[in-house]
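Batch manifest, entry 17 of 40.
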Amino acid sequence: MKKFFALLLALSMVLSLVACGSTKKAEETPAPVEETPAAEPVEETPAAEPVAVPGPDATDEEIYDYVLGDYYEAYTKALESMDISERYALEAIAEAKLLQASVMQPSTARGGAYRIGRTVPRSASTVLWGNDEDRQHYLMVTTEPITTEDYNAIKTLWNEAPDAETYVANTKAYLADKGYELKDEYQYPQSADPQTWDVLGTYLQADAEALVQTYEGLMEYDQKNVLQPALAESYTANEEMTVFTFKLREGVKWVDSQGREIGEVTADDWVAGMQHMLDAQAGLEWLVDGVIEGASEYMNGETTDFATVGVKALDDYTLEYTLTEPTPYFMTMLGYSIFAPMNRAYFLAQGGAFGVAEFAEAKEKATYTYGTGPDTIAYNGPFLITSFTEKNTMVFSANPTYYAPEKMGVHSLVWKFDDGTDATKTYNDMKAGDIDAAGLNTSTMEIAKEDGLFDDYAAVSETDATSFVAWLNVNRKAYANYNDSTLGVSEQTDEMKELVRAAMLNVHFRRAVHYAIDRATANAQRRGEDLKYNSLINAYVPGNFVYLEHDVTVDINGTATTFPAGTAYGEIRQAQLEADGSHIKAFDAETGLGTGFDGWYNPEVAAKELAIAVEELKAQGYEITAENPVHLDLANYSGSEPFKNEGQAYKKSIEAALGGLVVVDIVPYETAQDWYDATYYPNTGAEMNYDIGTNGGWGPDYGDPKSYLDTMLPGGNGMTKSFGLF
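Output type: C-alpha cells
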C-alpha cells in the first residue's frame, strides 16, 4: 500500500507535483462562494449492533464486528459478485455502511490550495491511482515562476491535446513563445525521510515517493494518463483475461548508486520482486491475495514453494502472470510498487533470502544490509540517489543507463527537508529559487499579496483522489508515544479513560463528534477562507471514481432499485445513505461531485445524536454531564502555526456543538516527526496515541473502489490501525 499518506508529507506534494492536477475535469469546479445549506436534520436509523457491548478484554476482532459488522457483511457480499458493475453498486452500498459507522470521517483531498511555482502543470502523470503520479522524470520546470494566466492556459492545452506527445510539444512551444526557459533540475520540499529503501518492504508514502524514482516497471502512465509500455514492450492476455504475458525490452541494465552495471533486467526480476514482497509481509502483500494464483496459499504458509505462485519467467524476456479469476483492474495495478522488479543476485549479495521464514531469519542478522540506505539497492529507473543527508538533502542524478532518456524532462532532483515548523519557509525558498513550487497557507498568502506576486502568479492546484481522514480511536491502548514514553503523554485519569472507551464504542457518540466538526473552518486555517471548501471531501471513495458499465438492479433496504449504465458510484452510495435516514451528504447528483461542500457538519444533528448516546451510556452505568464530560485527546502538530490553528478549530466546533458534554484536550507536538510517531508511523492500532487523529489518509493503488475499501477489512490490512484495531 503505497498510499498511507501523512498529511504534512502530502502538503509537500501540494507544493509541486500535485499542483499539476487531476485527470477529472469535474474536480476543477471552483469552491462555492457560500456554504451549501445544510439538509434538514433527520434522525438516522440506528445501526444494527450486537446486543453485548464489547468489554475491556474484548479482542480486536470482537470490537471490529461491533463497530463495522454492517460494513463487513455488505462488503463481503460485494466481493462475491463476478459482474463488475454489480460489484461497483454493492461496494457503494458497503461504503455507505462504513460512513455511518463513523469510525472515520473523510476530510480533505490533496490539492485545492493556492500555489506559486515553476512546475509546468500536468507535465507529469496525474493518474488517480498507483505510484506513477509521484514519478518526477517527466516534469518540465521553468527558470521563472509561471503566471496564473499561463498556468491555466497550459491546462487548456492538456485538455485539447489528443495524446501526451502532442501536449508536450504544444506546451514547449507555448512556453518558448511566452519567453520561458526550461531548466534541467527540479527542487522539491519533502518532510519525511524514507524509513526503508526497500520499495517492496514498505507501504508508507514517505518511502515509496522517493523510491519510485529509482526503478522502472512493466507499464507506466504518461502525461495524458494513458497506460504505456515501459520495460514491457508488449503484452497479451488470454480470452478469459486470467493469463497476461509480457515481452520485455532487451538490454536494460541494473546499476548501483554509482552507476556501475551489476546485471541485465530479465523476467526473473519480477518473479524475485513478487516473492520478496510476499516474504517481507510489510503491508503490501494483501493486495495480491486472491488476485494472483497461489499467492494466498504462499502467504498463509499452506505452501513454501514459490513455483506454485502465478508469476513465471518463461524465458529471460517473457514474463507471465496467472490470475485466480478475471480481474478487470489488473492492468491498473502495474503502476504500483507491488509489481516492482528486484535483482535477485544483488538482493542475495546484500544478505537477503527468499522464503517467508528464511527472510525473517536473514533480516535479523548483521549481514542483512538490503534497503538500509540508498547505496544498498539496485537501480533500473531514471534516477540514482547519489547523495543523502538525513533531514537535510536527497539528490537524484540521471541514470546513465536509463533505457529512455528522451522521456526525461529533468535530469536532476534535489529534495530538501522541511518539517513545516516555519510556515513561511516554502514560500520564501520558492521566491529565492531554492525550491520550485510552494503551496500558500494563510500566512504566506498575505506575504505574497504584499510582495505583489499573488494576483499574477497564484493558481489553485487541483484535487486528487487521496482521502485524508479524521479518525476516532475506538480501542485506545497508548497514552504516550510508542517509541518515547515522555512524548504525547495523556492527562486522562483511569476513570476518564474508561468513560472515553465506552463512549467511543457507541455509534451515536461517534456520529455526534463527527457531525460537530466544522471542517470548512478547520480547513481554512491552512487553505485560507476563500478556499476552505475547495478540498473538502465527504466520502472515502471519490463519487466519480467509477461508473456503471450497464444497468444494475440491487437491493436498497428491501427495495429492488435499478441504476442505469453510466451511473456514478457516488450516486448509488448516496441512495443507500438516504434510505438509511443518514444525515451525510456524500454526493451531489446535480454537479456529479462529492467535493467542494461540507456534507457532514450539522450541530443540531450532532446534539441529537449525543443525546441518544448519553441515554444509552447511562443505561450502561456511565454518567455524562457538564461536571463529568467526555475528555478526548486530539494529537496536534502545534509546531506549525496553521496546523495548531486547525486543532483549535476542531476543539472549538466540537465543544460548541456538544454543549460542554465533550471536551477536546489538545496534545501538542512541536516537531512533525513526533506527531508522525503518534499518528502515522505506528505499526499497530495499539500504538496509535490519540482519541481524535487528523493525520493519515489513503490514495488508491489501482482503478477500483476495492483499493480503498479493502483497507477497512479486519486483520491490519491498512487503515484499521488508525481507529485502534489490529
